[in-house]
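Structure ticket #2291
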Amino acid sequence: MSENTTKKPRPSLTEGPIAKTLILFSLPILLGNVLQTLNGSINAIWIGKYLGEGGLAATSNANIIMFFLISSIFGIAMAAVIMIGQNLGGQKVEEAKKVVGTSAVFFLILSIVVALFGLLFSHTILGWMNTPADVKDLAVTYTRIIFAGVPFMFGFNLIMAILRGSGDAKTPFYFLLLSAALDIVLNPLLIQGMGPFPKMGIAGSAVATFVAQLISFVLLIVYLYQKKYFLRITKKDIPLLRINWMIIRTLIQKGLPMGLNMVVVSLSNLILIHLVNSYGSESTAAFGVAMQISSYVQMPAMAIGGAVTSMAAQNIGAGKWDRVNRITWTGVGVNIMMTGLIVVLLHLFNREVVSFFLPPEGKAIAIGVHINNITLWSFIIFGVFNVVAGVVRSAGAVVFPLIVAFIALLLVRIPLATVLANKYGFDVIWWSFPVSFSVAAALNLLYYRFGKWKQARMLTSRG
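Resolution: structure written out below.
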């Protein structure tokens, strides 16, 4: 019998107080999300300061590509989280290790293919995106270096997913903090060539991100082996580093709908921006600011959604369905409390927060305040459906939440915003947020109560 089967895997999410465990588990995820957003914002400030609008335009085009890449692996990483969580809940450590071994090989092959494709075709991809000619060379330089770092980015995301699936949200946060700190410090040094560092311009910003991810990834692996992390691949586990087609099939079948969920959200936002653009630059600026503010408002719901997925997966693996139900409603309650608090604070200081992003002259501030007044409270509803969808997915029922997102965002929100806005005016666009979120929440709650999600399985049989 191996050491892993004699010892209870740690940390377990199948026992102890639910509310305390949920909050302590979701806080590092929340702080990690905030950290990554701040990292992007600070890097944009460095690029704008030293390289001007051309540099910002070049990196924004590259960042669209990177968002697509992260979306494509997000679902597969989440599938790994659920599979690992279910196996650990059922005390099947060796099965969890099979998932780790296959996922590691799969992500390595996938990352090398993506990196090579990006290095060879960056120029063509940016051409398809209609990147402005005056910044295309800068964008190609930046994008190629970012693509070279894809193996480390994919690897870093996979290990964070494995850790969260096993109930550890703190370690990923510490190494995200290290990565963000390195990225923020190295950006100006390599762009400008300060001290012993060469002046690299736009390439310096990409190299800073590359180096930050590489160092954090390597140190994370070293740390896990030094700590003898129970899911690490040891010498005797080397046979597990192989392609198990049943696990691969599950990762893709279950992961693809979760990745497509992000694509649906992005597509909805792109169509909405296209619509708002027709109302003039002040409306576009106000909408941009409102969306930036709402991205922070959504973070507690996203973190709690991620936490309940890991917690519910372990409890489903352990067969503790009563505890799964309590996790769901505790998650909904914690979301209402946390998101509600942020919404109340933002309503109290609405004008001040919007003014922070916009110049004092013009109508943009008033429009931004108005958008917030209509949309902000609806993110409490967004949190409710996000938490319930997270629990449903943790059982392996990943298609229905995707269908709900498609219905709510593309069949309800967009027609409401486009057709009715022409008839009833500009405000209908903003009312499409609470209406679409309410539809999504109602459908997810009905499925949670009456659907057959508990009968879903991640693996139909063992491979």
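Closing remark: The longest helix spans residues 18-89.
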